[in-house]
Every structure is written in C-alpha cells, then in structure tokens.
Amino acid sequence: MHKEIIEHEQEMFDHWLSNLWEENLKNRRLNAIPFIENYIKSACNFSNSYIKSHYGGTYSSKMKIDYNIRDEVEVNQVEMLYCKRVQTNKNGTIINLPMVIDIGNLESKISFKDGVFNPPQKIPLVEDECCRTLSTTNDIDVNICLSSIKSIMNLEKPNSLWIIPVNVDIDINERKTVYVGGALCTGHFSQQEKSWYYLRKELKKKFKKASPNESVQDDYNNYNYDKWMLKVSNVNGVDKSFNLLVRNKPHGIQQQIKPQNTPVVIIPKVEYQPEFGFEKVSEEQLVEYWLDTSFRCPKTKLALVSVQHDMDLMQVKWTIEEVESLSSNGKDQMYLQRLYLTLEKLTQLGKGEYVLLHNPKKPFHVDVYQSSVYGGFNLLNMYFVLQQTEVSDSLVWNPIDREILCPIHNYFKVAPCMFRPNPDQLDIQTISEQVTKFNTDRKSKENYENAQLLRKKRIKMEKNKIKRKLKRESDILYKIKNNTLNTGNSLTQIN
User: Fold this and answer.
1) Which residues, 6+ apart, have CB-to-CB distance to 168 below 8 Å?
2) Which InterPro entries match (predicted)?
3) CA-CA distances (angstroms) from residue 59 to 214, 355, 371, 372?
4) Rounded to whole angstroms, how far apart are CA atoms 160 and 363?
5) 336 by DSSP, 3-state: which?
6) How many beta carbons lie within 10 A of that of residue 63, not counting itself?
C-alpha cells in the first residue's frame, strides 16, 4: 500500500515538473554566461590559429567513408583488447574531490566562475618523438589519440564538427604506420556544450594537486601510451587485427575511495534542475562516459561532477552502473565497427598527409582529403564556414533520477521526486481549534443523520399503523356487509 502511494506521488511530481520545464526551466539551457562565452572565444581563437599554422595548405578530395555502407564486408565481432601500458606520464597528479557537499554552509560553497583559458602546449602526433619510438619498439600499426577515437565512434553527437589530421609513413623496410592526431573541434558548440567544455578544463584545475616527490613537467611529457589490439572476427572468412598505440592525457589518480591510487577521469555534468535533484543520465551522456573511461585503461574510474547551471558545485558521484552495460549487452559493437571501418580505410592509403573532416549535417559520413602541392582547394575556408552554421540546442525535458539522493534532499528531508513538506511553522493552537471544529462538525453531521433515520423510521411506523387500521376497518365493514347480505337471503327464503 505504501509503495503504491509513493509511486503515485512520484508520477504526480514528474508530471508537475515536466509542465514547469516547458513553462520556464528549459530556457536555462539557452542562457549565455558571459565569462564562459569569453573562455570559448579564446579557446576557439587558439584552435583556429593552430589549424592555420599546421593545416593551411591546399587539399584534394581522396575518399568518402560512409558508415551506413559496409562494402559487402560482413563483420561478426569487434573487440578492443587492452595489452599493456608502454609508458606512463611523468607528471604525478592526485585528484582530491569533495566527498560531502553542505549546501547550508555558504562559506564552503565551491564555484567555477573565475576560469581563464590557458593555451596548451600542443604538437601534431606525428612529431611526437616519444610516440614514434614506442611505435617502432612495440610493432604498432596505428598510433591514435584518444580524442579521435571518441570522435570517430560517437558520430551521433550533436554539432560534431571536427578535423582530424592523419599521416601515413612507410619506412625503409616498407612497413606502413598510420598516425591519427587529436580531434580539433572547438567552436561549433551549443550553450550546453560550451558549459561542458568550460567545466571539463576547469574541474581539473580546481581539484588536482601534485604528488609528493614529483616535479611538474611540461605538457609534452604529460601523456600515457597504451597498447591495444583491435581484433575483428570473420571479415569475409578471415580474422584481422590492428596493433594500436593510444595516447591520452591522464587526469590523475584518486586516494579517497577504494581501491586507492586508481586512475580517475573527471567528467562534468551540468544540472538544469538542481533544486529538484540529479537529472537522469541520457543515452548520449552514457556513451560519452563509456568512451572516456573504457579506452584509457581498464582500471580507470569515473568521477561524475554535477555542477548547477549557475556554475556552483552540486555533488560528486563516483559510479555510473549503466556504463558497464554498454559492453555487456552488445551495444558497443556499433561503435567499435565504426573505428574498425575507419582504420581499415586509413591503412589502405599511400604515404602522405591527410585530413578527416566531419560535418554534423551528414553525421554518418567522413570526408578524407589529401594534402596536395599541385593545387586544390583551401580546406580551412570550408571548415571556418561550417563553424558558422546553425547550432542545435536540445530542450527536451530530462526527468529527475528517483534513485539518487542529493544534498538538496537531505537539506529538506525529502525523498527524490517527492513534494516537499509545507515550509510554514506549525501553530498548535490553530491545529487544535481545527481539530475541535472538525470533531464538532462530524458529531453534528452524525446527529443530523441519526435524526433523519429516526424520522424516516417514525414515518414508516405511522404509515404501517395507518395501513393496519385501514385493514381492520376494511375487515369489519366486509363482515357487516356479509352479515347483512346473509340476513336478507334468509328472509327471502322464509317468505
């Protein structure tokens, strides 16, 4: 009975909140925050300058990769198998996140409103001498940045406009090696994505500290290099595999929960209904979390940091159980097949410099362009024009998760997706008067109903009494008439 009552109230709450979202709350996703706008502008200027300086030549179209077509190649199963860590970053960083958020203590409030964009030290992957050395010693086929893996696999991501540089080398032994650099995608963001990008950078600044006895190195040494095997079963009856060297920039290690000293990745989650709780993780967010943790190393732990839309910290969640379900229920195959198809195409290219371009208007197509000294067209002009195209903002309501207790629930002593108690202070005298009045009214009603029953009973008794009296009188009259008739008949017979 209690469970049914709770579920009924939760359904009423969801209906009420969805209406409130449509009336007003959805506009929070469209709000432009000035300091974030300036931050994104600086990041975009840096990215565009970097692209101009490294990829400003002329290009010719080489091929199109259509992820809706498999070229009549049947792939039964794709596996991404972790082999080993071939080199660990030289920067020791500990991530120290707040375990408990006290929203009643304003002095302990953590905000992210003072972020300043710091241009990173960035070099193309093909110029990374450490990567080239590790590639040779570990028999690598494809060197690739984690950001490019995520971009290639998650093509459905809204507003996903990016350029990925690709270099194909052939050594003196005729061995081909492919270098897939980091995805360059700053600029084409919705307001939600701007907040996410900003927090992605600033969270690491806020919560990281150097490990004891560790000297802070420059960004060029701040990478992990992991060897993976992309194994494909039954490609037209043949098993194939690629040895991958994945370069990623670690966030740090955590020492707050068991197992300690495990690598952790900090991922922001912007909450647009923080006064009501933790919004459910969408399918799109779930894929992002899975990609960001699964392909760093198998032990990587997710720290999901919920931040209110006004950039105040809401809470930290260490686990998202649904992330593991992507691999267990087979949904990962679609994403892994995209990675395989891309690498299969790139390993067929000849020696040279290439660029992959993804246009969000054609999400399941990627164009491959080759750098050409014999003329062509300026790829960057098209890229900069695409940056100016319309950006889509999702205003679809995201329900509150009923299973996650937030600081706001503890503060108001209420369960998730339940209405809060009346905040007015209780007046005992008023309540007593109301109870007395209620009891008096109830007693009066009972007395009235009893009086009505007695009246009906009395009327019924009187009616029955009259009926009996009439019946008796009728019987007497019948006897008199009957006797008179009998007497008359007797006199007639005598005469």
Assistant:
1) 176, 177, 178, 179, 346, 349, 350, 351, 352, 354
2) ICE2_C
3) 45, 9, 4, 5
4) 8
5) helix
6) 15
Query: Rg of the Cα trace of the chain?
Result: 39
Residue 183 CA to residue 36 CA, distance in Å, equals 22
Contacts of 451 (CB under 8 A, 6+ apart): none
User: Per residue of the chain (495 residues), what is the pLDDT tens digit?
Assistant: 577 888 888 999 999 999 999 999 999 999 999 999 999 999 999 988 998 888 888 899 999 999 987 654 556 789 999 999 999 887 778 888 888 888 888 888 899 998 999 988 888 999 999 999 999 999 999 999 999 999 999 998 888 899 999 999 999 888 999 999 999 876 789 999 999 999 999 998 888 876 665 555 555 568 999 999 999 987 666 788 999 999 999 888 887 777 778 888 999 999 999 999 999 998 888 899 999 988 988 888 889 999 999 999 999 988 776 666 666 566 788 999 999 999 999 999 999 999 999 998 899 999 999 998 887 878 888 888 888 888 888 899 999 999 999 999 998 889 999 988 765 555 667 767 777 787 788 888 888 888 888 888 888 888 888 888 888 877 777 777 777 766 666 656 665
Decide: 186 and 40 in contact? Cβ < 8 Å: yes
How many CA atoms are closer than 13 Å to the CA of 338, on its beta-carbon side?
A: 20
How far, in Å, CA of 38 to CA of 415, rounded?
39
Contact 401, 416 (CB under 8 A): yes
Reported as half-sphere exposure (CB side, CA atoms, 13 A), residue 21 has a value of 20
Largest CA distance in the chain: 162
Element (H, E) at 144: strand 142-145
| pTM of the predicted structure, to 2 decimals | 0.80
CA angle 355/356/361 to nearest 5° reads 140
Kindly give, in sequence order, each residue whose CB lies less than 8 Å from that of residue 432, ignoring residues fewer than 6 positions away.
none
232 vs 337: CA distance, rounded Å: 9
User: DSSP label at 351?
Assistant: S
Q: What is the DSSP string of 428-494?
A: HHHHHHHHHHHHHHHHHHHHHHHHHHHHHHHHHHHHHHHHHHHHHHHHHHHHHHHHHHHHHHHHHHH
Alpha helices in 217-331 (DSSP H): 283-294, 322-328
| SS3 label, residue 416 | coil
- Cα distance between residue 210 and residue 245, in whole Å: 27
- Under the phi-then-psi rule, with left for phi > 0, alpha for psi from -120 to 50, and beta for the rest, what region is 174? left
